[in-house]
Target: Protein phosphatase
Amino acid sequence: MQGLFRFFETLLRFLESLLRFLESLLVPREPKMESLISKKTLSETDERIPDALRLAFGIRYRASRAPRSGQPDEIANFAAVLLPPRSQAQADGADDDVCTDDDGTAPLWDLRMEFGSCYLKDHDEDAHFVHDETGVVGVADGVGGYRDQGVDAGAFAQGLMRSAHEEAVTALPGTNVCPHTLLERAYQKAAASPTPAASTAVILSLAGRTLRWAYVGDSGFAVFRGGVLLRRSRKQQRRFSCPLNLKAAGGETTVVADAEVGEVPAKAGDVVVVSTDGLFDNVFDDELERIVRMGTAMGFSPLNMAEVIAAFAHETARCTYRDTPYSVEKRKQRGAASTGGKPDDITVVVAFIVS
Model:
């Protein structure tokens, strides 16, 4: 009888949490912004995460008690029920790069991106922008090593994104923006200023029905189709925890010509996640895939999804008892026993591709 009581008590707590979350989706939100810094605080973002999602990934909600040994975790079980299974059709669709109408012909209309972003600060050295009209998003991460030299490690990243945003704003209507060209021009402007330091960077653009990118370092992106990971950037680094970066001047310099570039045909319904290493160091690809699938099933907006992804990465970064991409790579490269994440600034921009 007591076990049944605890079951319904847990169920009620979960349903209340889910109801609060769904109600939050109906609250009027800020308009899409084109600023460099999000105004969201961690506490505001944390409230957006359902208990079910957090516990499904093994992170204990602060107000929840861990189940006793041998007892089922009811909230996590309900989360598993909510998470739609990855079907074979979804898996097959991940390789479908050809975008056609139902009759098999090439569609006549272009696509566009709907954006949402979230920035959780640690040292406040990330920067980002989005520009709806040209369908461009950029993210940069200042190299923290300059902090020890008394230099504002975020200034160059902010200058780089500010210059890229200015270039995007002045583009003629209907212009298909080339991310590599935009990154080159932004870097020339930022490097010509007296701002020191260095930064990683990634810029993506949607040109017609093609998603294009250019990135340097470990700021990157992931593209999902049908809830399955379709494309994922791979970090550029000289050695472990030392990514390539664009530098203001002097030293071991990386140039924009070293940027990784590419493109993929886009399709309505694709979800694009652009982020600094604060996400990719702390969240595995399959975990990110599951969050995108759950968010899609629960009707998240781009902003809701960006907030949940960022807050999840923030919590995993501070977990000491679970593996992360960072801890796995650290064991591989340094041979030291290690678990846990890597606290860092976390910038997440989510774009829904719609027709």
About this structure: DSSP finds eleven helices and 13 strands in the chain.
